[in-house]
Specification:
Strand content: under 5%
Shape: elongated
Order of helices and strands: HHHH
Largest sheet: none
Helix content: 55-70%
CATH topology: Four Helix Bundle (Hemerythrin (Met), subunit A)
Length: 136
């Protein structure tokens, strides 16, 4: 993973083994599911940060961390871990700063995931499809 990258593409190789002939590739479907569900988590983060619901922040951080790690969104997972581990000790300003940072990281991670989804869809629709093991 490059320093500027938000997605560790080597983490995505695992999904190539799950692809089955005659079915759409797994990775673009997982990315679509993440992109559909993650905004709800981000909205919950915002709500919990405003009300200083530590339990809610930790719950959302844990859930988003898991799905982020699965898709190689390492920086987003790290931001979630920071909230999860510091929420008990942080004051309201620090919590809001952490959530603001998480939101920025989320946007950049989603942008990169969408690019990967488009790349994979194009490859699937072309005759020159290769799996990520050859490009990671």
């Amino acid at each position: 993973m490059s320093e500027s990258s938000y997605i560790d593409r080597s983490a995505l190789v695992q999904f190539d083994d799950l692809d089955q002939e005659g079915l759409p590739p797994v990775l673009p479907r997982l990315i679509a599911l993440f992109l559909k569900n993650a905004p709800k988590r981000i909205a919950e983060f915002t709500k919990h940060a405003k009300t200083l619901s530590i339990k809610g922040l930790k719950w959302e951080a844990h859930a988003l961390k898991s799905s982020s790690q699965t898709l190689g969104a390492r920086k987003l997972a790290e931001a979630c871990l920071k909230i999860e581990s510091l929420a008990d000790k942080a004051d309201s300003k620090k919590i809001r700063r952490l959530v603001t940072n998480l939101k920025k990281t989320y946007v950049l991670s989603c942008r990169e995931l969408m690019e990967i989804k488009v790349e994979r869809s194009k490859r699937e629709n072309s005759s020159e499809y290769t799996d990520l093991r050859t490009v990671a």
